[in-house]
Structures are given as C-alpha cells and as structure tokens.
Design a protein that fits this description.
Distance between the termini: 39 Å
Strand content: 25-35%
Radius of gyration: 20 Å
Largest sheet: 8 strands, mixed
Number of strands: 19
Oligomer: single chain
Helix content: 25-40%
Bound molecules: flavin-adenine dinucleotide
Length: 369
C-alpha cells in the first residue's frame, strides 16, 4: 500500500558502483544516519563515498513516524536509574544538540514545536510525572499538558520532520560538498580497509556501517548483540475534522501518531500485542497490526480512510543503549537504536566521523557501553 512519505517527494537517481574506487571514508547504508555522516565528513574535508543496497532512505529512515524526540529510547527517569544521573544528562544533552543541528541543516523538513507524552491511564500518568520531575531536576525543558489532546507532558524541544524530504536534502547537500553516492550497490563483504559490492569495491581507511535493521546481517560478528524487529504504521487521507497540533506518544511509547500539515494522520505502534511475530527481519505489514492501528484511530476520533500501510525493520539491544563501536580496525558499526533512531542515529554517525578525524569523540565515549 505504499508509504506516506513518498507522496510528492522526488528521489534523485544515483549510479550503481561498477568500478574499484578509493576514499578516506566509506559509509555503508544511506538512511538518516549514513547521510548525516556523509554530509558531515564531506564538510570536514574527507573524500567520502556512500553506498546503499537500494535507494537512499529505503529502510526505516524513510518509513518511520517522523518524531524527533530527545534522549535515547527509554524515558529520562528510567535512563537515570539504569545508567546514572550524569550519564543520562550527557546523553540527553547530546541528543538535544543534534536536534538543533538537524533543524539548522534542513529547516523546511523539520518542525520543533514540541511533542506530547500522553497518559493512557492513571498509572501511566504517575510515570509521566516521574519523567517530568527527572527532566526538571536535570534542567531540561518540560511542561504539564492538560488540553484537547489528553493529559500528560509537553516536551517543547521535541518535534517532527519529514523523513524522505530530509533524506533527499541531505543527499543533495552531501554531493554539493563533494561526496559521491552510489545506490543499488549492496555491500557484500566488509573488512578492514575494504568494502566489496557485487560489481565494485572501495578501499578506505575508515568504514562506517549505518544499516540499523540490517546490522546483524551485514556484520554477523555483532548479530548476537541485537534483535531485528519490525515496526508498522498506517496513514490516512486528510482528516479535516481534527486539528492535532502536537505529535503524541502514549502507552509507554508503544503507540505514536502525528497529524501532518495537509491533515493526514500517520500512526504507528501496537507491537506489544504481537511481540513474537514482530521479532523478525521481514518488512511485510500484517493485518493484525493494521486492525489494531485502525481501532486506535477510531479512539482518537479519526474517520478519514486509511491510504497507506507499511513496515520496516530496526534493531534493539538488551541494554537499551544503541551500538557505536569499532568492530575491526577502521570499521565502525552504529545502529540498534531500539526504535528511536532519528536523532540518535544522526548523532552517533556524526560522532564516528569526528572520531575518525580527531581520534576521539565525547559522544562516542558517553554512548559506548
Ligand atoms: C515504523 C517505524 C516508525 C518509527 N518511528 C520513529 C520515530 O518516530 N522516531 C524515531 O526517532 N525513530 C523512529 N523509528 C526508528 C528509526 O526510523 C530508525 O531507527 C532510523 O531511521 C534508522 O536509520 P538508519 O539510517 O540508521 O538506518 P536505516 O533507515 O535502516 O537505513 C539503512 C540503509 O542501509 C541500506 N542497507 C542495508 N543493507 C545494506 C548493505 N548490505 N549495503 C548497503 N546498504 C545497505 C538500506 O537499504 C537502507 O537504506 C521508526 C522505525 C519504524 C520502522
């Protein structure tokens, strides 16, 4: 049924890799994470080449909910408990800084008006207030919210973006800054200093693998650290009776939605209803998830017809922390953002570029588990 984000977004064509090339850095995987690295590396003067197995943003980066949320996947009060206050603060601040950069780089694809965490029941409201209190204690912006979209908190620094528009813009800016892009060129072998595709190869001192949902397949040496997981969404025709200003997440983040400027509603979630079935690397939407999401739309008051239903694969870790590590000399892996990689993926990919150039990165040190 297609993907909402493809409406009115023209994807540029890029060549396939059919020769042997050399570069300072190869980026494998051109979703939001890889494209951020590509642009940053080219702006920092590296000779950089990006390759994708498909088109740019073919995976989760072009198929997600479009929410830009600060922090890692778990809520800030839980992160404080799991990893300590100082580290939780550092991680949260790094993501806020990255959101500023995301907004500054592609302002017309981003809206930073805030997002709501809304309570599904009174028990969740208690947890939301613990979340709020932890943010306040650490000096991060948060407000109570009790209005037409429900009861909970407004995090004014959060927001939304258009995933495909941003990806296309990042690719164009990267090319202008000197990066080369090849699509339909899957990496079939990655070793120190060399990436091989089926029709070519690239020698490079630095290699960054940014393929989130495909990480375990592309780098089998870390497959046992991550679980590929399917997430699904549906979207509707313009819903003109409703005017939902803010993007929302609720039920501990299991469900999330936003209304686009044209009135369309994009909603995802319900994975907790079918955890076993969704622990898969097959990006096929299913009827059980569609039924759940349609029921959820009814509860919100949406009557517009469903237009699109899609799925994509992400990776999860047991710790809740994403992966950012050098797994062979010069070969870096980033991914496993546990379902919220729009900000963290960009942040970590950029940080790896800095590490390659400067020999260190505070972001990498703070995130590396
Ligand atoms: C339905 C859904 C909703 C989501 N909602 C949100 C949200 O609202 N907010 C949020 O922060 N996160 C959300 N996420 C998670 C987020 O989309 C991902 O974590 C993030 O987009 C990952 O981006 P990436 O660039 O790291 O990887 P991906 O988007 O997975 O990109 C990987 C790219 O690598 C390419 N590739 C794969 N294998 C190879 C290979 N062998 N060689 C070369 N290229 C290869 C793929 O073709 C793809 O283009 C959602 C995910 C899904 C699926």
């Amino acid at each position: 049924m297609g993907i909402l984000w493809d409406i009115n977004v023209e994807r540029p064509d890029f060549p396939q890799l059919t020769t042997n090339l050399e570069a300072d850095l190869v980026v494998v995987g051109l979703g939001g994470s890889g494209l951020t690295a590509l642009l940053h590396a080219s702006q920092r003067g590296l000779n950089v080449i990006g390759i994708d197995a498909d088109r740019i943003a073919a995976g989760a980066a072009g198929r997600n909910g479009g929410l830009l949320l600060a922090g890692i996947a778990d809520f800030h009060h839980n992160v404080r408990k799991d990893f300590g206050v100082d580290r939780a603060k550092a991680l949260y601040q790094h993501t806020l800084d990255e959101m500023d950069r995301i907004e500054a780089t592609t302002p017309d694809a981003v809206s930073r008006i805030g997002a709501l965490r809304i309570a599904d029941d009174s028990e969740e409201l208690v947890d939301i207030y613990s979340h709020r209190d932890a943010l306040i204690a650490d000096g991060f912006p948060v407000e109570n919210y009790d209005a037409e979209q429900g009861i909970g908190i407004l995090i004014p620094t959060d927001g939304t973006f258009h995933p495909a528009k941003r990806a296309v813009q990042l690719a164009k800016f990267s090319q202008t800054a000197g990066a080369q892009i090849f699509t339909h060129s899957p990496a079939i072998k990655i070793e120190s200093g060399l990436v091989t595709t089926d029709q070519g190869s690239i020698k490079a001192k630095h290699i960054l693998v940014a393929v989130d949902g495909n990480l375990g397949k592309v780098l089998p040496e870390i497959a046992d650290q991550i679980q590929p997981t399917r997430l699904q969404m549906i979207s509707t025709a313009p819903e003109l009776k409703l005017n939902m200003k803010y993007a929302v997440y609720t039920r501990q983040g299991w469900d999330y939605w936003q209304q686009l400027p044209d009135g369309r509603i994009a909603i995802g979630g319900g994975r907790d209803l079918a955890l076993k079935q969704e622990a898969t690397d097959i990006a096929e939407p299913t009827q059980i998830m569609r039924d759940y999401l349609e029921r959820k739309l009814e509860v919100i008051g949406v009557t517009a017809a469903v237009e699109h239903h899609w799925a994509a694969i992400v990776s999860y870790t047991n710790s809740g922390l994403p992966i950012v590590k050098q797994i062979q000399p010069g070969v870096w892996a980033v991914g496993a953002y546990c379902g919220t990689g729009n900000v963290v993926g960009a942040l970590l990919s950029r940080a790896v570029v800095d590490h390659c150039i400067d020999g260190c990165s505070q972001v990498v040190s703070d995130f590396a588990s």
